[in-house]
Write a structure and sequence with these properties.
The chain is mainly beta. It is built from no helices and 53 strands.
């Protein structure tokens, strides 16, 4: 038998076994977001909207607009009520006893519960208000009731917990309104058809009232976290993480499936039971005559964007709030011109091709589950067309440093169909300054020597500004310096080049030859043999930008007597030396003398040895020993 209102009707079972159905629900499912009624169930979806399924003879599955932003839902025999996030109550469905006529002076509410044909609310002030059918006094709230913590509305009986004590009123034909002494404070109460149960602080469960089917006989050893009283059966979530049911089992509503895992809450209907799990799913079993446990079509997804392309459109969406009690297996999109695309359940976008450029279309998107294709959401009108895509980034970007400036060069990107490049923007960091140029190369001035800059180059076009490519440079004067201005003939000197662009090949010519490749620092060294005085030129050319610098090196030539006997005084001649340099003569007889090199590069050093015979003479120019020789003085 199934209870409808307060009448009992006979139902003929056509099958002895009822297979429990698994329903996938939003992962944010909480203890207040799922409810079971006599013959239908409701959930609060991820968008805080109430979604119901099952019997719909009074429109109880059609959620009104005002039930959005719901934080709690409750289901009666044929009506539904939701509590919104602002403390308002919205009810719909059957109203033959005014059970959905929410009092206009109700005020702010923190909890609601629906009975058979009446509804009760717990206000934020701790008061209880009930409305609807009152044939047994179920809406006559005791005037002395205060400090209420929770409420439960059953068939024609209502109970509340006040300071840990259960207080009931209404139909007491089976003693269901007389809880008696429970032995401990109550933390939850649930009223069924003709019985009621309480969860106590010690996790024990006490039931009272009608016990024709054993629904008030609590199994020994029950330690519970939550309870729910149905029409003539009772269920609990135990502290060991299981679900236990007892009482009427005509529809196997008390036979808990063995694979129910990690239950969070249990709710009981007239002759069915549902459990929400920590995984965000709901399992229902028992009477399914009115589709209480039957999956239905999914809601429509939410469109997030629709983008026209060349002979196509790309549509994007968010998953449906409610999957119909069966996991979404894919999505189906159709253009108003009948072209379609399909996408898997993991996708959030697809592209419909084969459209005609210049012809506007709308696109509808539906979710698909095992039941079928659900309701569609339709986009606004869009018109496919050849898309002008902004240019890609230039390639081969190089920044060529100079004194207080840089020259930026690049290879232009190839624009797409219909796209015209109108110029380029070079953005300089630090400083965030921009320079516009028609084409490569592009000169950037006003920079500070020694500061490392980044130069981002992007093409401007009738399709917008394209992607940027970056090069780096540190502005400086291009210079070359020798490790020594005066060098002994046929020895190695090091020439340091500064201010060259990265990757440039620098060539030395003139008095020294060699080459090297410059690194990112802009500094490179070349070691070369110097044979004679002259000019050393360092040069590089990058993308037709020429770099050139020179440095003088001197290789002094010293002429001294080299054979026979030398008469006093001894004369040493220096030539090809750096003008202004100091030439020094040192002899082993203790004579030291200096001479400044003339502008001609010459200097003459003359000394008179104090004695005849062999004398060693050393000539030094600019601190570099040039010649050491021995002469025989007459």
């Amino acid at each position: 038998m199934r209870r409808v209102g307060r009448a009992w009707v006979c139902v003929v079972l056509l099958a002895t076994g009822i297979v429990p159905a698994a329903h996938a629900l939003p992962t944010n499912l909480t203890s207040r977001s799922f409810a079971a009624g006599s013959v239908n169930n409701c959930v609060i979806t991820a968008s805080d909207t109430v979604r119901c399924w099952g019997f719909n003879d009074n429109g109880q599955n059609i959620t009104p607009e005002g039930a959005k932003s719901a934080v709690a839902v409750t289901v009666g025999n044929a009506h539904v009520c939701a509590l919104t996030n602002v403390g308002a109550v919205v009810c719909w469905g059957a109203n033959e006893s005014s059970q959905t006529d929410v009092p206009t002076d109700l005020g702010s509410v923190k909890a609601i519960d629906a009975g058979d044909r009446h509804t009760c609310a717990l206000t934020n002030g701790g008061a209880v208000r009930c409305w609807g059918l009152n044939d047994a006094g179920q809406t006559n709230v005791p005037t002395s009731l205060e400090n209420v913590e929770s409420i439960s509305a059953g068939g024609a009986t209502t109970c509340a917990i006040s300071s840990g004590v259960v207080v009931c009123w209404g139909d007491n034909s089976e003693g269901q309104a007389t809880p008696g002494l429970l032995g401990a404070s109550a933390v939850a109460v649930s009223v069924g058809g003709l019985h009621a149960c309480a969860l106590l602080t010690d996790s024990s469960v006490r039931c009272w009232g009608n016990n024709d089917d054993g629904q008030a006989t609590v199994p020994s050893g029950i330690s519970a976290l939550g309870i729910s009283a149905g029409d003539s059966h009772t269920c609990a979530v135990t502290t060991s993480g299981t679900v236990k049911c007892w009482g009427n089992n005509m529809y196997q509503q008390s036979n808990v499936p063995t694979d129910v895992a990690s239950p969070v809450i249990v709710v009981t209907g007239a002759a069915h039971t549902c459990v929400s799990t920590s995984a965000g799913t709901v399992r229902c079993w028992g009477d399914n005559e009115d589709g209480v446990g039957q999956p239905t079509l999914p809601d429509a997804p939410t469109l997030t964007s629709i983008t026209p392309r060349d002979a196509s459109v790309q549509v994007s969406w968010q998953a449906s709030d409610f999957d119909g009690g069966s996991p979404v297996t894919g999505y189906f999109a159709r253009a108003s011109s009948n072209q379609t695309c399909n996408a898997p359940a993991s996708a959030t976008t697809c592209t419909i091709t084969g459209l005609k450029n210049g012809t506007a279309v709308t696109v509808s998107v539906s979710s698909v589950n095992a039941v079928g294709t659900g309701a569609a959401v339709t986009s606004t009108s869009v018109t496919p067309s050849v898309q002008l895509l902004a240019p890609s980034a230039p390639t081969g970007v190089v920044a060529l440093p100079a004194a207080g400036s840089a020259t930026v060069i690049w290879t232009a990107p190839k624009p797409g169909a219909g796209v015209t490049i109108t110029g380029y923007t070079v953005t300089v960091q630090p400083g965030a300054t921009s320079v516009s140029c028609k084409a490569s190369p592009c000169a950037v001035s006003g920079l500070t020597n020694g500061v490392a800059y980044a130069f981002a180059v992007a093409a401007q076009s009738n399709a917008g500004v394209g992607a940027a490519a970056i090069a780096y440079a540190t502005p400086n004067s291009f210079t070359v310096a020798a490790s020594s201005q005066t060098i002994k003939a046929n020895t190695i000197a090091t020439f340091t080049v500064s201010g060259a662009p990265e990757g440039a090949v620098v060539m030395l010519t003139g008095a020294a030859t060699g080459k090297t490749t410059v690194g990112r620092s802009g500094i490179a060294s070349i070691s070369a043999v110097v044979a004679k005085s002259g000019v050393v030129t360092a040069a590089a050319t990058v993308a037709k930008v020429a770099y050139k610098a020179t440095v003088n090196v001197w290789v002094p030539v010293v002429k001294v007597p080299t054979s026979g006997s030398v008469a006093k005084p001894v004369t040493t001649a220096v030539s090809a030396a750096r003008p202004g340099a100091t030439a020094t003569l040192v002899s082993d007889s203790g004579v030291t003398m200096t001479q400044t090199v003339a502008s001609s590069g010459a200097a003459t050093l003359t000394f008179t040895p104090t004695s005849k015979g062999s004398v060693t003479v050393r000539i030094n120019v600019d601190g570099v020993d040039i010649v050491t020789t021995t002469v025989n003085v007459k």
